[in-house]
Structure formats: structure tokens, C-alpha cells
Amino acid sequence: MERPEGHPGSGVTRYGLKWTEEEACMDKQAHPRAAIPEQGKPFMNQTIDVPPPASIDEIMGYHAHIYFRSPEERERAAVLRERIAERFSVQLGSWHDNLVGPHSLPMYQVAINDDVFPTFVPWLMLNRMGLIILVHPNTDRPRDDHLINALWLGERIPLMVDYMEESLKAAGRVRRPAIPNTHGTLPI
Ligand code: ZN
After folding, report:
1. 63: three-class secondary structure by DSSP
2. Which domain, by its residues, includes 32?
3. How far is the CA of 65 from the centre of ligand 1 (A)?
């Protein structure tokens, strides 16, 4: 980078590049730091109003929704489905090649009970074969479960939750535990 004639502050080196002072300032504008506290001063003295923490007792199992975006991904989803069945006790749902519920891609659902989560979800992290997976808890609040309290493996995709109840109890509905239809025995 050519140093402009008479510019006193040029020559800042970053990432092995020469910057003029002017350019360095432009760079700061592109990456504003206004929200970052001054060095050595953490965010403090902020008064905020937060609700008490929720108890995990509110969770009655989880769903993993395994999405596919192409015939090739559907094949991978089929391999994953087989591998899940060989290793875990879960409730494998039907294939949904057409969109159902809040989902904006075809998928199948895996319903799991609480005791399976600590092994199933880490196993999925390592074995999802590039597929997008939504893992959400099942509480009394399905809309929150999908939008706020979910885990995404891979990219996040839109969910259409407009029709979902905020509270099942308020809507007179009861959540039921998963009923496993696989009994996998292979090591994980
Ligand atoms: Zn679900």
C-alpha cells in the first residue's frame, strides 16, 4: 500500500499488511467496537430484570428432527436412521417427504427420553454426516421449545410456529413420553 504523501500516521501493520492511519480508521468503522467494554472494564452496574431459571424437570424428553435437502441427503439420512436404530432405544418416526408441522424441509423425527440424551446427542454431533438436525426439548411450551430452547446441528432453518400453542396445558393437551421402537445394541 502506497503511503500517502505527508500523512503522518500511516504504516500500521496488521496481518502482514501495511495500512495507512486513514485506512485503519475505516477498518474500525467496518468492525465497530462500540459494544465492547473498554479494556479491563467488564460490563458492570447494569440493572436488568430476568425471570428465575427454569427447572429441567419441565422437560419430558426431546425430539431430534433429521432434515434432508436432496435425494443424496435423503440417502445419508437413511444410513443415519439405520445407525441410530442399531445403537439406541428411541422412537423413530415416519419419513416425511412432504412438509409437516413447523418444518421447512422434509425430515423424520427421533423422539427420545431424558436418559438417552447424554449419549445420543453427542453421538449425533459426531455422526450427522453434514445433515441439518434440530434437537428440541419437550416442555409445556412447544413454541419456546422450537424457537428459543433448541439446539441446531449444522445451519439453522426457518420454522413455521404460528399455529403452535404457547402452552399445552392451557390448550387442554397432555405431553406423553417417547415409546421406543428400536432397541439398539451396537456400541456407541
Ligand atoms: Zn419436534
Report:
1. strand
2. 7-43
3. 6
Give 64 Cα–ligand 1 centroid separation in angstroms: 7
Assigned domain for 188 exists: no
CA of 180 to the centre of ligand 1 (A): 15
Same domain, 65 and 128: yes
Question: pLDDT tens-digit profile of 152-172?
Answer: 999 999 999 888 889 999 999
**Does the CA dihedral 52-55-60-64 come out positive or negative?**
positive
Query: Model-level pTM?
Result: 0.76
CA angle 9, 32, 44 (to 5 degrees): 115
Encode pLDDT of 52-92 as tens digits. 999 999 999 999 999 999 999 999 999 999 999 999 999 99
Per the structure block, which three cell numbers stand in for 172?
A: 387442554
The answer as to whether 70 is a domain residue is yes
β-strand pairing of 151-153 with 133-137: antiparallel
